[in-house]
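Good morning C.,

I know you're traveling, so I'll keep this short. The sequence:
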Amino acid sequence: MAQKRKTTPAINLIAGGTAGLCEALTCHPLDTIKVRMQLAKSTGGKKVGFFGTAGSIIRNESPLGLYKGLGAVITGIVPKMAIRFWSFETYKGWLANKETKATSSTGIFFAGLAAGVTEAILVVNPTDVVKIRLQAQNHSLKDATDAPKYKNALHCAFTIVKEEGPSALYRGVVLTALRQATNQAVNFTAYTELKEYCKKLQPQYEELPSYQHMVLGLISGALGPLSNAPIDTIKTRMQREKAVINETAVARVKRISSSLIKNEGVLAFYKGITPRVMRVAPGQAVTFAIYEQVSRFLETVPIVGRPQKVLAAED
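The tokens, ready to paste straight into the viewer:
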């Protein structure tokens, strides 16, 4: 285990928020393409792939159509990243060896798992519902008369609560928690292990260069989506539609899953996997690289860099 750097909640908030903002601005178009591919119904004709979906959005809705739902993402990105890194470090501290203060790979896995559930419940699910509703709108941004139902993220959230009740913002929360939990468990574990391995191979580096943090984030970021694509597809379908009266969450999952298998085949569970990997993997590369750089800088700032006794970050 490498020597641990001290961190504070302020560092997690600022560094995580900055990293998340950079990730959203860079990778959001890929997420929009992924959502459109997951929502597309298979009709037996020629399938529209990644580039076909992107071209259709740009052609019919203008290039800005790729950024639909960005407001919801940016609104939630700072608290999400703050909660992700802060909760991960907190759980990792709780699971650390009391004598050595080191956390095992198993401990890191469960810390990531718990951090994913925490961020899903507090931030991710409500912003996901709003984001998907906005991304699912096929109105043209070129035509001022083609008015969408939802004008922006705030209006979308207000309309959903007004028409469907506050619980609508938590539709699919169990699946979201499963997705985020597996994502962060795999993500943090893979990144930490790869980082330690690279440090052993390059003892001349006290801290790895930024480009290596990006490569490690790219690899670890790709593993999560590959492990939970069916969960994400079912969640996306569930969050787009309105609730069916007297239908339980379990019944809704079964209905959507059965419909996918019957009408579109098993491979439909992996719709949008290409843009999702292309979205998440580079996103994690940006996130980890920016987080490492910003957090190291903030550690030198007396006010925000005051170390805590419990938390210890190395990711």
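Safe travels,
E.
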